[in-house]
Please model this.
Amino acid sequence: PGDGVGLVSIINNISNVFPPSPPLSQGISEFCNGDNLPRNCSTHYECTHVLEVKRHSVVEVMLYDISVLGLYHPFHLHGYDFYVFDMGNFTSNDTEGNVKSILANHENKLRNGGYKNPPGKDTVLLPSGGYVILRFKADNPGWWLFHCHIVFHMIVGMDLIFHVGNDYVDLPPVPPFFPRCYNFKPKPFFNMDPFFI
Ligand SMILES: [Cu+2]
Model:
């Protein structure tokens, strides 16, 4: 990405970039997700990856990783415990076919009451060459990070934010005079105030 790191990570074709200030107190001016991709990028997109979630809805996430490097990504969610419904390995190279049949089985199992006490966790290992299906009830409003816990992967974009609820309706107001912050990256040298340096 722009900071000179030679590797990017993408989720749903988006490489997350952290916003310059906390969304909880300052909101967010620009973000993207699968339904809202910036037009001016071609191979992958770098932006703050935000998924809008209605409060009290049930969120289901299927993560899969088609690489077979043997590296298991530990995905961690803030603000919730999620339930792990299914995980396993892909059985062929046909990613789309694998995903379809896994989701079909999962839906059947849900309908038939086939899941008994799925384990609650806040971190799950996504198998290399495999998948995991998890769910949580979005009853805790806020801006919650969901990310691979390998720090390097966090930095190169393997994160997204679940924005649950409406800030004005579901969250207490930001206290008056609450400190505000911005992007503190230094300006290019030629733009700097000569009295400052
Ligand atoms: Cu990772």
In short: The domain at 58-137 is CATH 2.60.40.420 (Immunoglobulin-like). The chain has two domains: 1-20+29-53+138-169, 58-137.
